[in-house]
Automatic annotation (TrEMBL):
Catalytic activity entry: Zn(2+)(in) + ATP + H2O = Zn(2+)(out) + ADP + phosphate + H(+)
Record keywords: ATP-binding, Cell membrane, Membrane, Metal-binding, Nucleotide-binding, Translocase, Transmembrane, Transmembrane helix
Organism lineage: Bacteria, Pseudomonadati, Pseudomonadota, Betaproteobacteria, Burkholderiales
Organism (species): Lampropedia puyangensis
E.C. code: 7.2.2.12
Similarity comment text for this entry: Belongs to the cation transport ATPase (P-type) (TC 3.A.3) family. Type IB subfamily.
Designated name of the protein: P-type Zn(2+) transporter
Annotated ranges, domain P-type ATPase A: 202-296
Disordered as annotated region, ranges: 1-36, 57-77
Length: 731
C-alpha cells in the first residue's frame, strides 16, 4: 500500500558546510517555508486562523491548494497592512486633528485643517482596509472590514474626523499586534523545520567519494556523514559509531548512540564520529518529510468548537449591523435623542462589536498546543484530535510493538538438576558461545542476556570457544562439539527429534509454566541430556509501567488487546499493571472490542501495526506508534502519532488536550464578557469610538497571551523511563 505521506511537499535545500561543527549545524537550523498564509475567518479576515504551509523542493515546483473545509468564509482582500511608521504617523495626525478641534473649534480654517489631517491619517494607515470594506458592502458581505468602513465613513460624515482617523489607525495597529502574536504561536510549529543540506558526500564502490546533490541520491547509495553535519536522508549505519542528536525528529532531549545496523533520520545531527550510511529513504519519502506533511495537514483540521465559533461569528456581524441601525433610528424616535448622538453611539457599537477576539480565541490556543506537542515528538492531526483527546476516559493498548518493543529478551533461564556448580558455569559459557554464533533473533537474545547476567563467565573461555566447529541448523538451532560431547542449542521439538532424552516431570512443568506466560522456550543439550532451559519473551518498554500507572492515577481506565494467547496477554497485563487484558484477538476482534468500549465511554486505541489499523479507525481517538518501527497504515489512520516510537509522550497527549480545552473556553468567556461590558457602555453613551478600538485590542491581546501560554506548558512533558527487570536464573 502506498502511503499518502509519500505525496509530499518538498523542502528547498540550502547549502550546508560539511566542515562545520555540531554547534554550527544548530546555528544554521532555520525555517524553510514556501508560504505562511492565514485563512480568512468569519469575522472578515483581519482576525485569522493561522494555516502554515511547509515545503521542501527537490527541483520540481508545485503547490498545494487547500480549500476552505467549511466553505462558508467569503473571499476577500484587505490589502497588506500599513508598515508601523505609517501607523505611528497616522496616530500622530489623528491626535493633531483632535487637538485642533479641541483648541481651535470648528471655524473655517480649523475645520478644514482637522478634516485634512484626519483624511491623511486614514489614507496612511488604512486605505486598503477601507477599500476592502467598501467592496465587501457592495458584495453584500457584512464582515469586520465592512463594519470599519461604515464606522469611519459615518464618523467623518457627522463631523467626528479625529475619531474616524484614530479608529482606523488603532484598528490597523491592533491587527498588526495580533498578527505578530500569532506569528509567535506559529513559530512553535515552525521549529520542527530545519535547514537541510543541499549536497552529500557519496561513497562509490571503488572507495572514491563525490559531492552530489541530495536529489541525485538513490536508494541503496552509501553516504558519509562527518561530525557536525546534519543527516540529509534516512538511512542505516554501515560503519562507524557516533552520538546523534535526533531532537528535531523524535523530541529526545539527549543524543542517541548509533552503531552499525541502526537507523539515521533526515534532519538529525551527527555530533562525534564519522558515519557511513546506506540510504533507505530518498528525497520526499523520509520521516522528516512525513512529519512536514502531517504538520501541514494538522493546521487545516479545525476543532468542532472552532467551527462553531466561526459559524457564530458569521451571523454575529449582521446581527450587530442591524442592532446598530436600530440604535441609530430607535433612540431619536422613541426617546427623543438627537440624531447625531444616536448615530455616534450606533457607530461606537459597530466598532466595539468587532468579533476579532472571539474568532482568534480558539486558533491561537490550538496552534500553540500543536507546536508544544510537536517539540515533544507528539503530532496531533489538527484541532479535531486535540478536542477528541480531552474527552477520552478509556485507553486500549496493543501489546507487541506498543507496550513491548517487539524485540526478544532473555527473561529467565535455569540449569537442570544433576549439574554441579563447575559444570553449571560451563553450561552458561557454552550456551552463550553457541547463541552468539547463531543468526536467529531468539539466540541473539539468549547471548545478550547471558552476557549481561555474568559477563566474566561468558567470556571465561572465549578464546577456546572460537576453535569449536559450530554448525547452524536453519529453523532448528546450532550445534558444536566440545570436549568430546555434542552440544546443541535449539527448540525442544528439534532436540527430541535428534534423540535427546525427554524432560523430567518437574522440568516439563517449568516449560509449561513459561509457555503459559507467552515465553518462547529454548534448551541446551549435552549429548542426549538436556542441561539448561532458557525462556525468551518480548522486551517490555522501560516506560510502560510508569505510563500506565500515571494514566490510571489521572482517572483513565486501561485495557490491553493482543493477538497473543490469553495467558500471555494476562501475564503481560499483570506485569505492566493493566487489570483487563484480552488475548487471542484477530483484527476484527479488536475492532469489535473497541466498538464495545466506545458505547460505554470515549475510548482511545494505541497501536503500531497493520493489524491495529481497523481498531485505530474505530476508536474515538486513534494513536499510532511512529518512528522507525511504526507502519504507514497505522500512522495514516491515527489521529495522533508518537514520533519518538515510545510511550513516554502518551500521558502528555491527554494532559495537554484537557489544558487546551480549558484555555479555549477561558478565551471565549473573556472575549464575550469584554464585548458585553463595552456594548453596554456604548449604549449608555460612556464609550467613545477610539476607546472601543483600544478595548478590542486589549481583549484580543489578552486572548492571544492566554492561548500562547500553551507553547511552553509543561503538560506535554514526556514521562521518564525506568529500568526494566533483570534476567533471573536458577541452578
Amino acid at each position: 500500500m502506498e502511503s499518502n505521506w509519500m505525496n509530499q511537499t518538498k523542502h528547498q535545500h540550502e547549502v550546508h558546510d560539511h566542515s562545520g561543527s555540531a554547534h554550527h549545524a544548530e546555528a544554521k537550523e532555520g525555517h524553510d517555508i514556501h508560504s505562511a498564509t492565514s485563512k480568512p475567518s468569519a469575522c472578515g479576515g483581519c482576525c485569522t486562523a493561522p494555516i502554515v504551509q511547509f515545503g521542501r523542493s527537490n527541483g520540481n515546483d508545485h503547490d498545494h491548494e487547500h480549500a476552505d473545509e467549511e466553505g462558508d468564509h467569503a473571499d476577500h482582500d484587505h490589502g497588506s497592512l500599513a508598515p508601523w511608521w505609517r501607523v505611528a504617523l497616522a496616530l500622530a495626525l489623528g491626535l493633531m486633528a483632535e487637538l485642533t478641534h479641541q483648541f481651535l473649534g470648528d471655524a473655517g480654517a480649523a475645520k478644514a485643517a482637522g478634516m485634512g489631517l484626519a483624511a491623511v491619517a486614514i489614507v496612511l494607515s488604512g486605505f486598503g482596509i477601507y477599500q476592502s470594506g467598501i467592496k465587501a458592502l457592495l458584495r453584500g458581505q457584512l464582515n469586520i472590514l465592512a463594519l470599519m468602513a461604515v464606522a469611519v465613513t459615518g464618523a467623518f460624515l457627522i463631523g467626528q474626523w479625529a475619531e474616524a482617523a484614530m479608529v482606523m489607525a488603532l484598528f490597523v495597529a491592533a491587527e498588526k499586534l495580533e498578527d505578530a502574536a500569532m506569528d509567535r504561536a506559529r513559530n512553535a510549529v515552525r521549529d520542527l523545520m530545519v535547514t537541510m543540506p543541499q549536497s552529500v558526500l557519496r561513497v562509490l564502490t571503488d572507495g572514491r567519494t563525490e559531492q552530489v546533490a541530495v536529489a541525485a541520491v538513490q536508494l541503496g547509495d552509501q553516504v558519509r556523514v562527518a561530525p557536525g553535519e546534519r543527516v540529509a536522508l534516512d538511512g542505516e549505519v554501515i560503519s562507524g559509531q557516533s552520538a546523534v542528536n535526533q531532537a528535531p525528529i523524535t523530541g529526545e532531549s539527549t543524543p542517541v548512540d548509533k552503531k552499525p545496523g541502526e537507523l539515521l533520520f533526515a534532519g538529525s545531527i551527527n555530533t562525534t564520529g564519522v558515519l557511513l550510511m546506506r540510504i533507505t529513504g530518498a528525497v520526499g519519502t523520509t520521516l522528516l518529510d512525513r512529519i512536514v506533511d502531517m504538520v501541514e495537514r494538522s493546521q487545516q483540521a479545525k476543532a468542532l468548537i472552532q467551527r462553531t465559533v466561526d459559524r457564530f461569528a458569521a451571523i454575529y456581524t449582521p446581527i450587530v449591523m442591524v442592532l446598530a441601525l436600530l440604535v441609530a433610528l430607535g433612540l431619536p424616535l422613541l426617546f427623543g435623542w438627537t440624531w447625531m448622538d444616536a448615530i455616534y453611539r450606533a457607530l461606537a457599537l459597530l466598532v466595539i462589536a468587532c468579533p476579532c477576539a472571539l474568532v482568534i480565541a480558539t486558533p491561537v490556543a490550538i496552534v500553540s498546543a500543536l507546536g508544544n506537542a510537536a517539540k515533544q515528538g507528539v503530532l496531533f492531526k489538527g484541532g479535531q484530535a486535540l478536542e477528541k483527546a480531552q474527552k477520552i476516559r478509556t485507553i486500549a493498548f496493543d501489546k507487541t510493538g506498543t507496550l513491548t518493543e517487539g524485540k526478544p529478551q532473555l527473561e529467565e533461564w535455569s540449569v537442570l538438576p544433576g549439574t554441579d556448580d563447575g559444570e553449571a558455569k560451563q553450561v552458561q559459557a557454552l550456551a552463550q558461545a553457541l547463541a552468539t554464533r547463531s543468526k536467529h533473533p531468539v539466540s541473539k537474545a539468549i547471548a545478550q542476556g547471558l552476557e549481561e547476567d555474568a559477563p566474566s563467565v561468558a567470556y571465561a573461555q572465549a578464546d577456546a570457544y572460537t576453535q569449536m566447529d559450530m554448525e547452524e541448523k536453519p529453523g532448528s538451532g546450532v550445534q558444536a562439539h566440545w570436549q568430546g560431547k555434542l552440544w546443541r542449542l535449539g527448540g525442544l521439538h528439534w532436540l527430541l527429534q535428534e534423540g535427546v532424552q525427554t524432560l523430567s516431570t518437574e522440568a516439563m512443568a517449568q516449560v509449561q509454566a513459561w509457555r503459559a506466560k507467552g515465553f518462547s522456550v529454548t534448551a541446551l543439550s549435552s549429548d542426549v541430556r538436556i542441561a539448561a532451559l532458557f525462556a525468551v519473551t518480548d522486551t517490555v518498554r522501560s516506560e510502560a509501567s510508569a505510563v500506565v500507572q500515571m494514566l490510571q492515577n489521572e482517572g483513565m481506565q486501561t485495557a490491553m488487546l493482543s493477538g497473543d494467547s490469553p495467558e500471555a496477554a494476562q501475564h503481560m497485563g499483570e506485569r505492566i499493571g493493566i487489570a483487563f487484558a484480552q488475548g487471542g484477538l484477530l483484527p476484527q476482534d479488536k475492532l469489535n472490542a473497541i466498538a464495545a468500549y466506545n458505547q460505554q465511554t470515549p475510548t482511545a486505541m494505541i497501536g503500531d501495526g497493520i493489524n491495529d489499523a481497523p481498531a485505530l479507525a474505530q476508536a474515538s481517538l486513534g494513536i499510532a506508534m511512529g518512528g522507525a518501527e511504526g507502519t504507514d497504515i497505522a500512522t495514516e489512520t491515527a489521529d495522533v502519532v508518537l514520533m519518538s516510537g515510545n510511550l513516554q509522550g502518551l500521558p502528555g497527549v491527554f494532559r495537554l488536550a484537557r489544558k487546551t480545552h480549558a484555555v479555549v473556553w477561558q478565551n471565549i468567556a473573556l472575549a464575550l464578557a469584554g464585548k458585553a461590558v463595552f456594548l453596554a457602555l456604548a449604549v449608555a453613551g460612556m464609550a467613545t469610538m477610539w476607546m472601543a478600538v483600544v478595548a478590542d485590542l486589549g481583549i484580543s491581546l489578552l486572548v492571544v497571551a492566554n492561548g500562547m501560554r500553551l507553547r511552553r506548558d509543561a503538560a506535554s512533558r514526556p514521562v521518564q523511563s525506568i529500568e526494566g527487570p533483570t534476567v533471573s536464573h536458577r541452578v
